[in-house]
Specification:
The chain is an alpha+beta fold. The protein is built from 6 helices and 3 strands. It has a 3-stranded antiparallel β-sheet, with helices on one face. The longest helix is centred in the last third of the chain and has 28 residues. The model has no long low-confidence stretch (mean pLDDT 77).
Length: 159
């Protein structure tokens, strides 16, 4: 109903207008960017990387795979891209183990050394620890495989 029309039942009403207090919302503080590494630190990192990794940049697909936040996802995508197989297991002596099949008869066994309780959370943490070590161990091999030029099937099997 428009405000100018009276209501069907008449009751006296009192309308007061009270100004609302303005409340300032706290602003989120911007995080300061991390300091740039010193030149000595960068040289150390280059020495760690090894001479072959300095010369060749990582293939684009490998960079996208390594950008994943989950180590398990990284290993899954890496193995999927290269046609490798993988499995996880827990052993009392070795902790969580990732076993990656890189080709016919070429199996790599990577022991994490992490022992987590046998719970859902523990299993998840154990697989993540094994996957992180496996991705690190397979990084060089994956870079070479992804950087190699593809050969058509017909040429690959010509005798």
């Amino acid at each position: 109903r428009p405000a100018s029309q009276p209501s069907s039942h008449s009751s006296p009403s009192l309308h007061l207008s009270v100004p609302m207090a303005k409340v300032k919302k706290p602003r989120a503080k911007k995080a300061a960017p991390p300091p740039a590494p010193s030149s000595a630190k960068r040289r150390k990192e280059k020495k760690k990387a090894g001479p072959e990794e300095e010369k060749r940049p990582l293939p684009e697909l490998l960079r996208r795979i390594l950008a994943q936040t989950s180590q398990v996802s990284q290993l899954e995508q890496l193995c999927g891209a290269l046609g490798w197989g993988r499995s996880y297991a827990y052993e009392r002596r070795a902790g969580w183990v990732a076993e990656v099949t890189c080709g016919l008869g070429d199996k790599l066994r990577i022991e994490s050394g992490h022992h987590h309780p046998q719970t859902k959370k523990g299993e998840k943490a154990g697989r993540a620890a094994a996957a992180a070590k496996a991705v690190e161990a397979l990084r060089g091999r994956a870079a070479e495989a992804l950087a190699a030029e593809a050969i058509p099937l017909g040429e690959a099997f010509r005798g």
